[in-house]
Specification:
With about 350 residues, the chain is of the alpha+beta class. It contains eleven helices and nine strands. The strands form two sheets. A five-stranded antiparallel sheet has the order 6-8-5-9-7, with helices on one face. The protein has a four-stranded mixed sheet with strand order 1-4-2-3, covered by helices on one side.
Length: about 350
């Protein structure tokens, strides 16, 4: 947790020093006052994420959540943890920190959705060499905003200022979330998945938070600067376009889960479409995709062309425009499509399940 520092019980200095000239923690590179200022700055942001079961207050030794407040009969807790990878390098190089926090939240809450769980609460870990209050506030503001959109409370976190571990100006992020689902509703429902079941997808906003080491390699090959006009997204800089945040899917997935319309979800993360869809299927079944069923966003064509990347490498590195895939009985496909269309989405049938 981001705790207030302890108050010393007395003010005597160690032998051989004086209060006037003795070393301080700040002399070693850790600014306690800056940490306190960050706690004050983010406290109202965390409070705004309060939800049933959590008051989202900061300052204790642990974050509290009242599982009984959910009113579930037989809940199973589902946890997830992740970071945002080398996408951070672009945020740092471009000086754009407002939306990287959404990536952190999305990569965690979208994973627990794949088990059918409603995200309940979130904790973050922000580590740096020297705390920049403006940067840290921007990042954590993005985390809080994403938590609010995902319906989970930001109940705690840790800000670690570690001179010598990270160069000045650098930081790293990690996140942790817990969700809950009724035991009978845990996904995937492996025993219910059959050959002929349909794969219905929701679009991504871009690469999300995967493949950024390859993205950075491609950009280096082009020689473009992060503030250069974006070749595939007019009106944006290249850095801003590549920092488009990962989509949050709880608002869309939870109604489908509660309506009993899906047998499984696959969150398309590292490993792309080829590695993630099989994770929601029993071993004797495989996904068969119609790669012509959707048009990937322009960023993917640009990356493939500029990097000379093979199609199979694209498919196992990037989401290629698909962020979440549902496994659905054929007779329930119209209901799921209608549900998402009424929510303003553009779902697409991308394939089916067949025997291996």
């Amino acid at each position: 947790m981001r705790e207030q520092p302890p108050t010393p019980s007395h003010s005597s200095a160690p032998k051989g020093t004086s209060a006037a000239n003795g070393l301080t923690y700040k002399d070693a590179g850790v600014d306690i006052d800056a940490g306190e200022a960050l706690v004050k700055a983010i406290a109202p942001l965390a409070k705004a994420t309060a939800r049933r079961g959590a008051d989202a207050a900061l300052g204790g030794f642990g974050g509290l959540f009242d599982i009984k407040a959910l009113g579930m009969t037989d809940p199973i807790l589902v946890s997830g943890t992740d970071g945002v990878g080398t996408k951070l390098e672009i945020a740092l190089a471009a000086g754009l920190h407002d939306f990287i926090g959404q990536d952190l939240v999305a990569m965690c809450v979208n994973d627990v959705l794949a088990q059918g769980a409603e995200p309940l609460f979130f904790l973050d870990y922000f580590a740096c060499g020297k705390l920049d209050l403006d940067v840290a506030t921007a990042v954590i503001s993005g985390i809080a905003s994403a938590c609010k959109e995902a319906g989970c409370a930001l109940i705690g976190g840790e800000t670690a200022e570690m001179p010598g571990m990270y160069p000045d100006g650098k930081y790293d992020l990690a996140g942790f979330t817990v969700g809950a689902v009724e035991r009978a509703d845990v996904l995937p429902k492996l025993s219910a998945i059959r050959p002929g079941d349909v794969l219905v997808a929701l679009p991504s906003s871009g690469p999300h938070s995967n493949g950024y080491s390859l993205i950075r390699k491609v950009v280096a090959l082009t020689g473009l600067a992060w503030d250069a006009p974006c070749p595939f997204s007019p009106g944006q800089s290249l850095g801003a376009a590549l920092l488009t945040p990962t989509r949050l899917y709880p608002r869309l997935a939870l109604p489908a889960i509660k309506a009993g319309l899906v047998k499984g979800f696959a969150h398309i993360t590292g490993g792309g479409l080829t590695d993630n869809i099989p994770r929601m299927l029993p071993d004797h079944l495989v996904p068969v995709l119609d790669w012509q069923a959707w048009t990937p966003p322009p960023v993917f064509q640009w990356l493939q062309e500029q990097g000379g990347i093979a199609a199979d490498e694209m498919a196992r590195t990037f989401n290629c425009g698909i962020g979440l895939v549902a496994c659905v009985s054929p007779e329930q496909v119209p209901d799921l499509l209608q549900l998402w269309l009424e929510m303003g989405e553009e779902p697409v049938v991308i394939g089916e399940v067949r025997a291996a």
